[in-house]
Amino acid sequence: MAEKTRLSSQAGRLYIVSAPSGAGKSTLCRILMQRLPDLRYSVSTTTRPPRDGEVDGRDYFFTDVETFTAGIQANQWAEWAEVHGNYYGTSAAFIDHERAAGHDVLLDIDVQGAAQLCVKYPDAVTIFILPPSSAVLRQRLEQRGADSPGIIDKRMANARQEMAQRVAYQHIVVNDRLEEAVEALVAIFRGNQKEGMPTR
Length: 200
What we know:
Blueprint lengths: L13 E5 L6 H11 L4 E2 L3 E2 L14 E2 L2 H9 L3 E7 L2 E6 H9 L4 E4 L2 H10 L4 E6 L3 H11 L4 H15 L7 E4 L3 H12 L11
Parallel strand pairs: 1-7, 1-8, 2-7, 3-4, 8-9
Antiparallel strand pairs: 3-6, 5-6
Helix pairs in contact: 1-7, 5-6
């Protein structure tokens, strides 16, 4: 089991945001960073090649398998996973350094990574982004125009599994109307809301 991290009462907070693909998590996190400029965003590291338009250090830190696996042995990652033959991980040093400096840290991460992080950082604030319905989620995925119907079916199956894990999260925000969802997130981050945005 990962060692739990203990920090002073003045340390920054760790916020973990998860959601199924198509729920709008990336858009919400981007707006949140604009609204809360002191918030620090944790950029993940991966061994997969950069895609068109991706920038090292902004979208991901890109590295090779040898370097990444050495980081596993050195306990460099707060969480890590192998997905489709590529490694993905979150830097423990970045989180610990920023929190020790009093900065709040935002992680945009899947449910498996979130579970690992909550073991190491039991004081983390966890937020799950839900679509208004499964039908709306499928519609959003189809409107992207990036995936075949078969891939969308797989994404929907994965989404159902991920949404079943929402009970493990402290806050649930339904991304129906974007501005309302943003305000719910901001309220959570500012400590003014205890239960997240109601579903209706």
